[in-house]
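--- STAGE predict ---
source: upstream dedup step, 1 unique chain passed
mode: sequence only
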Amino acid sequence: MPGSAADLLRAHDLHGHKYAIDSALAAIARASRPPVTVLTSDPDDLTLLCGNRIRIVKV
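--- STAGE serialize ---
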């Protein structure tokens, strides 16, 4: 299972600065003790990067 932001980007074949913040946030969320909820305006990318263990809420 990917752990770092760079691991997440590689695992999903994502590149560039567009995904840098999302991947960093996803790595932090995945490393946190459950339950974890992430609030975002871009739920699609974070859902992809976080997987089903993290609750993603669009704001």
